[in-house]
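U., I forgot to send this yesterday:
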Amino acid sequence: MKQVSEFVKERRKEVSLTQQEFAERAGVALTVVRKIEQGKTNLNMEKVNLILKMFGHVLAPVNCKELSK
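Result:
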């Protein structure tokens, strides 16, 4: 499974945006994009979802029991 950091970085580059340009379009601070792409673990879920929504995705809680079925 691809890490969120890899996914965001790859997709951002596919649309030819700098981190700054991407942050502005997503409505977040540049530091948020940098932290996500660096794989930092202490991130605000709302901010991560603002970034992911740019690509039609969101993070949400998943029941572990459902994954094992």
